[in-house]
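ingest -> fold -> write
write: protein_1
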Amino acid sequence: MKPYTVTILQGGKRVNQTVLAASPDDASARIIAGGGIVLQVQERPARKEKRFPLNLFLQELIALLEAGLVVVEAVEALRESSRDGGTSLVLDTLVKKLYEGAQLSQAMMALPALFPPLLINTVASSEQTGHLPEALKRFQFYESRMEILRKRIKSTLLYPTIVIAAGGIILFFLLGFIIPRFSVVFDGMKNPSASAQLILWWGRLTQTHGSLLLAGCAAAVAGIVMAVRSPRLRQRALGLLLRIPALRQQHQLSVLVRFYRTLGLLLQGGLPAPDALMLSREILPATHRQQVEQVIRDVAAGESLSRMLEAQRMTTPVASRLLQVGERSGELPAMCERIAAFYDESLERAIETFSKIFEPILMMVVGGIVGLVVFLLYMPIFELAGGLQ
C-alpha cells in the first residue's frame, strides 16, 4: 500500500484527497466506488514517514472494546481523535474496510507493512471465539517481552561497539598525526634503535603515500558498513561467531525464547498446532527453520509435539517435561509461555555473565594495543635521554 494524492471534482471545485492504495488504478477505483469523480492521481513523493504507533493503537483499541464499543466504532473513534496525518490515513483505511463488511483481521491484511502476520492471525482466531480484547492483550504482552529481549541484546552489543570505535579513533589519530610528526625528531639520528626505525619508516610512509593510506582506511570503513548492511555477510559473520561455545549457547537461548513465546501466543488464540508452528517458523533464523519444518510434518502426521521438538533439538530436558505435562493436561499454550519465561531468565543470566567476562577483556585488549603504540612512540625519546646522560 502506498499513499496517493487524488484530485477529485467536488461541488464544482478541484479537491485533493490522500488515499492508501496498491496502485494508481486502485486509488482511482476507491474514489469512484465512493461516488467521486477522479481528475488526476499522483503518487505522493517518497519521504520518511512516521512509524505507525502500533502499540498505542492496540492499547487504545483494547480500552474502547472493553468499554463496550464494537470494533468499527472503536476504530472510528481513534481516527477522529488522531492528529497525525499518516495515522489518520491508516485508520481511515481500516474504517472503510470495516464498513464494507470486512472483519478487523481482513482490514489489517490490506496493510501488511503495518500489521504483522502474527497480529493478523491472532485477531482472526479471536474473531471466531469473540474474545478480541483478550487476544489483543496477549499480543501486546508478547510484543513488550520481545522488545525487552531486543533491547537487552542491543545493550549488550553497545558497550563493545563503543570501546572498539573509541580505540579505532585513538589509533587513527596516533598513526595519522602524532607519529608522523614525531618521526621528524628522530630523522637525524646516526644509530637509531629498532623502535626509532619503525617510527621513521611509518613517518616516511605517511608522507609519501598518505593519500593512499587514507583512501584505504576509507575503503575499509565503507566495506565494514556494507558488510553490516548485507544480510548474507551478516549471516556468515554470525556463523563464525557462533563457533564460540558461549555465544552459541546464548544465541540458542534467544531463538528458543522467541519460538516458544510466539508458539504460546498462537496456541492461546486457538490455532491448530501445525498452523501455529508454521507462523512461529517465520520469526526464526534460517538455520532453525528446517528443523521446525520437520516438526510440522511429524505433528501433522500425528506425532507428539514434545517428542518431535526434542528430536530436532528445539528444547531442553526441563522444557520437554513441561511440554509433556501440557499435552496431557491440555494446558500446552500456558506451558509454552512458562518455557519462554524460563529460557528468558536463563538468557538474562547468561548475558550478564558474558558481559562481566567479555567487557574487561575487550577493554584490556584495546587498551593494550593503544598502549603499545604509545610505548613505541616514547621509547626512542627515553633512549635519547639515556644517551645524553
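write: protein_2
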Amino acid sequence: METVSTTIPNPLTIPEQKTFIDSIIERNRNKPGATMVVCTELQNEIGYLSAPLQEYVASEMNVPLSSIRGVVTFYSFFTAAPRGKHSIKFCLGTACYVGGADQLIEKAEQVLGIKIGETTSDGAITIEACRCVGACSQAPVITIDEELFGKLSASKMPKLLKKYQD
C-alpha cells in the first residue's frame, strides 16, 4: 500500500463543517481559556485540526496562533492530519522497547507499506508510537482502536494487521 497524499482536506471549504466550526467558536469566543474546549470539540467532530483550521480558530478567537498550535502539538489526542479508520499505536515504554517493540514496528511498516505517523492510501490504518500504556507484564504491546494486544512478536503482526485492512 502507498501512503495518503500529503494534501490535507480543508474543513473550512465544506459548508456543513464551516457552520459547525463557526458555532463552536461563537459559543466560546469570549471565554477565558476556551482554546482547549474549542480544539476538543473540533477534533471530535472533524477528526483533525488542519493548519488552515488552526489559523482560522486563532484569528476568530483573537488568540495567538501559538496557543492553538501549542494545544494541538502537546496533547496526543489531537492531530493535524486525518487518521485512518483504525488507529494502531505501538508502545515504546521501556518494557515494550526491550521486549521487541522496534521489531513489531518494522514488520508493520513492511506489511502496510507506511512509516510511523502515516496512514495507508485507502485510509484504513494509521500507525503511531506512544509512551507506556501500563501493560508492562504483557510487553511488547500495541493498541488497535483502544483494544490492547500483548505478548506480540513480529511473526504475529501480518495476521493481526490483516483483520484491520479494508
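write: annotation protein_2
The longest strand covers residues 86-91.
Strands lie at 86-91, 125-130, 142-144, 147-149.
pipeline exit 0
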